[in-house]
Every structure is written in C-alpha cells, then in structure tokens.
Fold:
Amino acid sequence: AQSVSQHNHHVILSEAASLELGCNYSYGGTVNLFWYVQYPGQHLQLLLKYFSGDPLVKGIKGFEAEFIKSKFSFNLRKPSVQWSDTAEYFCAVMISGGGADGLTFGKGTHLIIQP
Amino acid sequence: GAVVSQHPSWVICKSGTSVKIECRSLDFQATTMFWYRQFPKQSLMLMATSNEGSKATYEQGVEKDKFLINHASLTLSTLTVTSAHPEDSSFYICSANGGGSETQYFGPGTRLLVL
Structure:
C-alpha cells in the first residue's frame, strides 16, 4: 500500500518569506499527486495536481510543486507567502488510473504566516 | 463548478442512536464517492469508496455494519453511523469525482459528537 510523509507538522514564517513544504510518498508504480489546502473553518480545496507531463506544476494562488520521480517527492513551493496563506496543507497520492481509489493523505502541515 | 455539499454540517446525538450524513455533488454526476474520517490534528483516513448502484468497498478495519453507505444516485451518497458510540465522534468528510476525472472534490465535512 502507498503511504505519504510530510516532513514538517508546523511551520511558522513571516510574510514575504519563501515556502517549501516537503512531501514524499512510497509506492513503486505510477501515481497521481495532489496538494490540498484547508483554511480555518473551511473545507479542503485543491491547490494543484500532477498526473503526467511537465513535473513542475503550477496551481492556484501562486503555489507550485515539483515532482521528482527519483526522490519520490512532490514538494510544494511559494516564493513569497502572505498572511492569508495560513492554513493546513495536505499532500495526497492516488495510484494512477485508480479513479475509483481513494486518496492516501499525509498528516498535514500547519502553516502559520506572521504579519 | 465541482461543488460537493454535506448535510448536516454538525450533529450531536446520544449514544446508541443512528445518524445519517448526506453527500451531494451539486453540479456534476459523481461516478465515485468517497468517505473519509478525520480525527483532531490528524490526517484524513479513507473509510470507504462507493459507486452508484453497487455495494461500497470498505477499507481494512472499517466496520461495514456500523458505517452503512448507500450511493443511490449519481449525485447522492449517504453514510449512516449505526448505534453510535462516543468513540465514533469525529469529522466525516466526503469527496466525489466524475466525468472521467481522477480529481476528487471535497465536501465541507460533518462534525459528529456522540454523547
């Protein structure tokens, strides 16, 4: 079975700082990768996803992620964070072609941006 | 587009009673719907996968007789927690995908408190 590891459980940054949240997965085959964000009191929203093609994917709100197959990683980045980016971030993986399969989530990273 | 709703958003019930949670895809037909459970400060754990008109597939360790899932139409799935106990208190979240997409869209969740 696949698993997802997010390295940082809590991250505190100042506004305008650069962000990188780590995500590694374990699965020997082809996967689809996702980053979801959960703002306080709101439901999960899709930030970006990778299915195939260019390993550098751009999502909403200035976020991007890079899939490095050799490292089984899909790190999330943003060059300059804003106070409104305070939220919980979840990395998730699904076996490619497994549209009927659920997602396996990492434990999440709680990001706090200080004004 | 791709909006998923859940009802109710929160529910408090007495131990031993049953609680039904609805999940609806509002603007698309959901081929598959998923039910997740999220404990405080933890990640989402997949409970079961349901396809319209067929029996749900439960993850290992999830009691199918306790968590009844009915996917009656392409826009509605229900989760019934039968004979609820305090340890069933949690945040239940559904998601749905459809139209050949492998991207899951999440509902806002239902917070269940069993007294």
Observations:
- Chain B has no helices and eleven strands.
- Chain B touches chain A at residues 31-32, 34, 36, 42-46, 49, 51, 59, 93, 95, 97, 100-109 (CB under 8 Å).
- Residues 4 and 107 of chain B are 5 Å apart (CA to CA).
- Chain B has a mean pLDDT of 91.
